[in-house]
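Consider the following assembly input.
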Amino acid sequence: MTVKTLPDQKCQSCDKCPYCEICLPGKSPTSSDLSALNNIIDKRRGLNKGEILYKAGDPLLRLYAIKSGSLKIYSLSQAGDEQITGFSISGEIVGFDAIFEKKHKSFAQALENTSICEIDYAQLSRALYRHQEMNMRFMRLMSQEISVKKELLMMISRETAPQRLASFLLHLSEAQTRRNLSPDVIKLTMTRYEIGNCISLSVETISRLFSRLHDAGIITVKGRYITILDQVLLRDVKNGNLCQAAKSENHP
Amino acid sequence: MTVKTLPDQKCQSCDKCPYCEICLPGKSPTSSDLSALNNIIDKRRGLNKGEILYKAGDPLLRLYAIKSGSLKIYSLSQAGDEQITGFSISGEIVGFDAIFEKKHKSFAQALENTSICEIDYAQLSRALYRHQEMNMRFMRLMSQEISVKKELLMMISRETAPQRLASFLLHLSEAQTRRNLSPDVIKLTMTRYEIGNCISLSVETISRLFSRLHDAGIITVKGRYITILDQVLLRDVKNGNLCQAAKSENHP
DNA sequence: CGCTAAATTGACACCTCTCAATGTCCGTGG
DNA sequence: CCACGGACATTGAGAGGTGTCAATTTAGCG
């Protein structure tokens, strides 16, 4: 595979990074904190599509912040098939589940050409010791990930197939909004299979649901590009007012 | 309801607590760390069965360590029905998902009379600042919770009903082993409904599965008491070699 | 332009939910 | 001590959503 050059983000320092607020939530970091962080971050690594960033079992050497692109985070079952536990995009930090045993517990693979910041874990630990405020930011991030995983759990266990897909799309939409991107035009960086795997549905169901949402005039589907035509209707689907099977077009 | 007296654990200090290793994983805490922790923990609170420890939306004032008893942790959907995201028992600390926004994101309710240690969050923050090793212990705990939630996710989304129940029982069994209790005799502190809610199955399915596991000679069921007769077979069920519907007793 | 992976669509089966009835346990009060 | 009541648990019958299998179409990429 040809190594494609990654888009140069010209983002050499955290205080100029457009995702600072997502990456390190809370009030603006002090310049002292930021410079400490800058010193321990290597901001120059690129991943090609398909490249694996870390594997379950790898010793925890670094955490990773995503500058651009996206990753899928997954585990392998005993039988060897993958269980995607989430997708991570720009501004997010991955690898927190490795801290417990100092070993990565998941796999992380680039879904597209992706640019990351490497955070040396040993140095980070020392820096957090000296910078209480930064320490709290990281604890907030871990706390957030716990909440997000609980939400995903809630979604998968309580929602029907159409609700899950609607939730999934709305999640992506909100993530784009937080990054000042359009909430309506979504480029999926993952396959239908990977979506289904993450929200526990078969590829075929995902496909059928896209068709149904399309037929209902809620979205358009052009390959990996989804456009949300009606946020309100999509939210209705998420709340259970799902477009019934196409048959009942003329609802009584 | 009559207020029952809680069993007095005679556990006034963390270094004498039998769950120290579960509560604060890692090498033995230094006496300096422990005394710091002791100073900020109030170890005298009891909860009656059914009592709610915190609610989603409550400001984060404290984290809680469970000395004895058990809690269910749950969220409420928009429709108002509960989604149990886990059960917590002695030695575990709850409330980590509140750190992100300094507000509790879940509900915690006592499943039985329960004794807890209250950890003042503001004091904890300050103490963690001064005690790096203790700080790392808490980050490990949060990291662990992220892993556990991912496992639960994996279980619910990839496993069949019998596999899920087997996983659930084996989880309880392992938790008891870590506490030097019998791995085979399990007292369920939650109802069938609550089990089903947590692993995303209906009450009826839980009941039917208990019967099937019983008929297969893998467990005995006496109300809330489950005895695992054959750990190996139960593990087989977890791995998909599920006891088929009772019909095929004479498998070819 | 052709090859391969990905996506779509249909038919069918089955696991699990829902609804319903019955049985059991335990706390309460007579 | 026993009877009663309500929550909890068990069991059965039926329905429906989603997975599986299979065939075809489309898209992506060398």
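Chain B is about 40% helix and 20% strand. Ask yourself how this observation constrains the way the partners meet.
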